[in-house]
Design goal:
Keywords: Decarboxylase, Lyase, Pyrimidine biosynthesis. Homodimer. Pathway: Pyrimidine metabolism; UMP biosynthesis via de novo pathway; UMP from orotate: step 2/2. The protein is α/β, with parallel strands linked by helices and about 230 residues long. An eight-stranded parallel barrel has the order 1-2-3-4-5-6-7-8, surrounded by five helices. The chain has a single domain (about 1-230), classed as TIM Barrel (Alpha-Beta Barrel). It has helices spanning about 10-20, 30-35, 40-45, 60-75, 90-100, 120-125, 135-145, 155-165, 195-200, 210, 215-230, and strands at about 1-5, 25-30, 50-60, 80-85, 110, 150-155, 170-175, 205. The chain contains eleven helices and eight strands. The structure holds cytidine-5'-monophosphate. Cytidine-5'-monophosphate binds near residues 112, 115, 185 and 205.
Amino acid sequence: MYLALDFSTWNEARTFIDAHNFQGVPVKVGMELFYREGPRLIENLKQDNHDIFLDLKLHDIPTTVMKAMTNIANLEVDMVNVHALGGSEMIKRAKEGLISGDSNHEPKLIAVTVLTSMDDTSLYKELNIGGSVNENVVRLAVTANKNGADGVVCSVQEAKEIKDVCGSSFLTVTPGIRLQGSDGNDQKRIATPALARENGADFLVIGRTVTNAQDPKSAYEKVQKEWRNGIK
Ligand code: C5P
């Protein structure tokens, strides 16, 4: 379970971590925080013993992504990602970049399939992409798998089929997690932690269902309990 540190500054993120006793939990750092604080933020989080998913969603020509990944590998985070829509060559080169870093700690490479903020209508009406979200997600997962990614970001709804098609060791990382009754915000393909468990997701990304809760720690523990035990 990665707690999404969707804050504008390290100071805000650290205040939140300290106020709610999230010291040492696995965290996800996205572009908002990273673009403000840069690599020193990663150093700070590592010093505080957090596992780190660096969610920068790279999407550029293969050579640029490869070189960026070489630099990212040197940050020694645990997980990084690209957009699968960048294509097979880009995914392959991203992996090459990670392997060629100086560090012995190679991050897992995850490919974002279709953002969980998109649905069938937005895919077709805005991007003119045919087929359902589900079909597109599975096709992108197969491409990612063939080209060296360790897994994909997808919604809980697609996790089971991806495991069936790509194999059980191919990782599924699922955002859009909401406790029953929480606001979906801008996410369209949301699911509970219990359904994520049932569908075989490997990692949850937990954001606003915890960070916007009145009592973030107890919301986090509730997510964790549902995720570990399901709802009986
Ligand atoms: O607040 P919420 O739980 O919706 O947060 C989801 C987090 O996961 C955000 O930080 C968002 O950037 C990230 N994410 C996502 N969809 C992806 C990849 C990452 O929502 N495909």
